[in-house]
Amino acid sequence: MKKIVRYLVIAPLAIVIIVLAVANRQIVTLSLDPFSISDPSIFVRMPLFILILASIVVGILSGGMAAWLRQGKWRRTARSKSDEAARWHQEADRLREAGQQASRHALPSPDLRDISG
Question: 31: closest CA among 11, 17, 51, 12?
Answer without folding.
Answer: 51
